[in-house]
Amino acid sequence: MTAGPAAPDTRAVILDTDIGTDVDDAMALSLILGLPGLDLLGVTTVYGDTGLRARLARRYAALAGRDLPVRAGAGATLSGREVWWAGHEGTLHPGLEEESYEAEPAVEWMTRTVAARPGEVDVLAVGPLTNIALALEADPSFAENVRTLWVMGGAFGDVERTEHNFRSDATAAARVFASGLRTVVVGLEVTRRVKVGDAELDRLRAAGPLGEALAADIDQWWKFWDEQWNVPHDPVAVLTLARPDLFTLSGPGTVRIAPDGEFAGESTFEPGGPQGRTHLVRGLEADAVVEEMVGGIVSAGTSPDHGTRPQPSR
Q: Which residues form a coiled coil (predicted)?
């Protein structure tokens, strides 16, 4: 195993997310907005009602004082699997229908943006990989134009046979990992070593309007599962990019995805090989990851211009 490389001063990033269901997507977006080393170029949404998800991303950015471009992506899965919809998405955010987002389709913008800056833009994919698969289909050079794809997905240990993001669109996941895209993946066996509980929730709640909104969504998610904690899967993926020194990565290899059947989306990792361009996150410093995550989100919520309203989207 090898430690991740040191991060440069600033990384240009696109976030592809199914924000609105599991609260960890909102946590990931808030964390990105609070980390000085990341330049968030825009957000694309995926899976289900992507318009609602786009408006929710805009709302969170507004609470952090950011006029963030957001674009809606694919709602239906390439596999044909039915979208799982919890039913609480956006319900704690009054007036959400008034939030606007960009008209340009997500995949079109994503391929255009990375093509204009080949090798300079990282993509963080923390939902089903439908948009990423469609981007590869729309522009075969997408695989080389992206600097690195950072993925939260899969289960590579003994925790479960499948994980939600890969299971939700196994066809898309299989296409992405067969593309040769440079990728770093963090799976359930690693993210579940980190938890958010009451102490972290209290700190987040005190972080201005952003923290109040996020804490309410976290509390709603806890009630949904009748738990008093949650696993911040997606913020962990953000930190693999932003703070690689807190993680241990495997050497290069290949991820294989079961495309169908009872265990559609099941993921396996084959180390080595001439085509291997994927690294797995194997370990992390859990306490430091929690502190960096909470600190970054608090920073986003307590910046001097937090809580201001953005101008209408163009």
A: none
| Strand segments (E) across 103-246 | 121-125, 146-152, 183-186
Buried-exposed string 206-222: b where 16+ CB fall within 10 A, e elsewhere = ebbebbbbbbebbbebb
Q: What is the largest CA-CA distance in the chain?
A: 52
| Both tokens assigned to 179 | 């593309």
What residue ranges do the domains of the chain occupy? 2-301
User: Could you read off the pLDDT tens digit of each residue along the chain, which spans 314 residues?
Assistant: 344 444 447 899 999 999 999 999 999 999 999 999 999 999 999 999 999 999 999 999 999 999 999 999 999 999 999 999 999 999 999 999 999 999 999 999 999 999 999 999 999 999 999 999 999 999 999 999 999 999 999 999 888 899 999 999 999 999 999 999 999 999 999 999 999 999 999 999 999 999 999 999 999 999 999 999 999 999 999 999 999 999 999 999 999 999 988 899 999 999 987 778 999 999 999 999 999 999 999 999 997 554 333 333 32
- C-beta of residue 77 within 8 angstroms of C-beta of residue 47: yes
Q: Which among 56, 65, 96 is positioned nearest to 301, based on CA atoms?
A: 65
CATH code, residues 2-301: 3.90.245.10
Q: How many residues does the chain have?
A: 314
Q: Are 159 and 188 in contact (CB under 8 A)?
A: yes
Could you count the other beta carbons within 10 Å of the beta carbon of residue 235?
A: 31
Q: Which residue numbers are catalytic?
A: 18, 233
Inter-CA distances, 3 with 174, 279, 306, Å: 27, 11, 35
